[in-house]
Amino acid sequence: MSVNSLSNFLYLGRRCTKLSVAVRRYASTAVNPVDRDNVKPKTGIIMLNMGGPSHITKVHEYLLRIMTDRDMIQLPVQSQLGPWIAKRRTSEVQRKYFDIGGGSPILKWTNKQGELLCEKLDKISPETAPHKYYVAFRYADPLTEDTLERIHNDGIQHAVLFSQYPQYSCSTSGSSFNAIYNYYRTRELPREMKWSVIDRWATHPLLVKTFVERIKEELAHFPSEKRDDVIILFSAHSLPLKVVNRGDSYPAEVGATVALVMQELNYCNPYSLVWQSKVGPMPWLGPFTDEALKGYVRQGKKNFILVPIAFVNEHIETLHELDIEYCQELAEKLGIEKIRRAAAPNVHPLFIDALADIVVSRLKSKQAINPKFLTRCPHCVNLNCDASKSWYAKICGI
Question: Angle at CA 300, nearest 5°, toward 295 and 303?
């Protein structure tokens, strides 16, 4: 056994008790709770997201699905290199999940959001009730294909495919929508089912107000004499520059959200849009969050708020990368005076109102799908994308 392998083994062994507790905690949320109710739904809200491993024993299969998905990442000889990278990164990623409690909380938060969303929809849109939410994750349970089977068995009349990425990217939102198309390529569509698509909602006023409230909550923790000098860093997951240069709309849509949030705040503080979670050696969209912090500290800045502007719930990139790696470890190293991290929208009342308004607007609209969604990037290289968008146009009656 190598030194690194022995170190990893001992590290995992020391935390076995913590793991067993975490497994029990997340096992209770591993099954979509909508499977246990007996309501005959009329409208199904399919909540699309990347997902996350519910506990550390699921990390490898989660990484394997990501690294072999060509919508998410393109690698040479991907069928061989993808599994190798997934195996190589498993122990490192497991350690990070240990540090945040043993597994990803994305399913827990999505279930809470779905429950509150459907409660509100039943009240404000009784003509489309009862509503039932379904979680459809791309890389973790409940997987998209399993959820589509449940929808078929439930016999819903109207399926609303609702991306939980406010800002659209071909690598994230696009992968989930392509997975649905791929599922039905070899299957019959449910008869008499109506389809609607919500692919992006970066500028929704209530989403903007949710971020505004989260930022105000954190600004209140700074002394009044220093509050106006706090730099607000809006942090979003980065993209490889080759994806950006193909025409992916994600950077522009993230920027639109930031601009509206600061407008709502009356530009009360200096701010910047930064990018996190770069993987691999290729060029990615910057400036990176950690490098931006270093740069501002060199300029004499000492107080910061990090805002996860492209995430709707807590997960490893907020709880570990932002909270531990930046707000704790990097802040101490740089001598930052005070740094706070704004909570993700999670179940903020304004955010639930936003979700409900977005769904109701689509249900009442004569337009079942956004024309922008049906348009490929100007330099698209994904042949599957063309067939997928044509299929969505057909099922939505375009």
Answer: 85
